[in-house]
Amino acid sequence: MTIILAVVGILIMVVAIAVSIALHEIGHLIPAKLFNVRVTQYMIGFGKTLWSTKKGETEYGVKAIPLGGYVSMIGMLPPNKPGKKVSKSRQRYFQTMAQQAREDAAAELTDEDDGRTFISLPVWKRMIIMLGGPFMNLVIALVITAILVTSFGVATPTTKVSDVFECMTETTDAAALQAECDAQDDPSPAWEAGLRPGDNVTHFNNQAVSNWDELSGAIRERANTPTAVTYERDGETISSTITPVLTERPRLDRFNQPITDASGNVETASVGFIGMSSQIENVEQPVTAAFGVLGDQISGTFSVLTVLPAKLWDTAKVLVTDGERDPTGPVSVVGVGRIAGEAAAQQDIPLADRGAMLLSLVAGLNVALMVFNLIPLLPLDGGHVLGGLWESIRRGWAKLRGKQDPGPFDIARMFPLTIVVFGLLLSMGVLLIIADLLKPVTLF
Known about the structure:
Layout: H1 2-34, E1 39-55, E2 58-73, H2 93-107, H3 123-152, E3 154-164, H4 189-192, E4 200-204, E5 207-208, H5 212-220, E6 227-233, E7 236-242, E8 245-250, E9 268-273, E10 276-283, H6 289-306, H7 308-319, H8 333-344, H9 351-373, H10 381-400, H11 415-438
Helix pairs in contact: 1-3, 1-8, 1-9, 3-6, 3-9, 3-10, 6-9, 7-11, 8-9, 8-11
């Protein structure tokens, strides 16, 4: 049964990846059609065509390598300038390739394509087309996140007590929960005040507290100060006095992750501490909460991109050592599928929660697709957007100086960089796939 559930989870994720890619490309296709650009192909995947059909002037199909997709539009490159040839000093591989690409693009044009080429559109229309794909991924992620926060809720620390330290030891982390107390150890403030797992704190310092942020903030500010605390247990209201101790605690960012300095050391602050942990519960949120949750996820994904080279290097080292994969590091589509399979196979977790985990994976996948495609490098969508911005700046500057319009920016000149980026992306994909096969990330 476990194997069957794992296979079902993997198949669900395979379908979700295919649909996400297909909708990403539709995000390019729809505005291109609306702006009357002739679209010759809409393809899911790369390599050999497995199936295709032609409707109107566009061929729709599926290719053998399911690692992306593309929409082929007429006139993506400006034609070679009349009378201008590549000089002998510049007859190199990349320059010749760029010239050939422009000639191939021009060869696709017909007499009916006048005014229907991509490059003939105003820059703002071209940018809408190129941003359409990432925008579609954003919409998918937002819809799924809205479903999750309104139906399944968001994992939220509550004012209910999960665990209590019996005494104050040298450590104040989770390890202290299993530590044995000696006679000379002082009881923790929470234990001394009578708090036990399952209690629900309702008031602190005579102020009502409705969430963990309010309670933890009040605790941190009351170090070494006797404070009234009220909590409920089995329907009974209990009042006591608690004195938070001054201790060093990690500083947390808005994602509740420890903040580290430039050397990688966790930053701490002297605050009040009582020796209890909060119970995490799924709390249903209004649909507007989806924007905040998604915003945090997007911000976190951008943060991962800033350290991606280091994360990839760590992954490569793990392959040749006895180390373990970083669960917060990057994974390939193979890794995403394995995680989905593991999530679906957890029979001790309610079916609804497993469904929520799979939906969350799909939302995270679409956020990653959106952010990754916005990287301002060709052949990614962000590279085309950057080219359009540069063209606008160049044309605007020429107009201000009363100079001749320099015309569209020729992205074919960026082919050398494009090939390098493509090679790096391919290498990254191969590395992560190998790592996900040999040393997969384990979350359960």
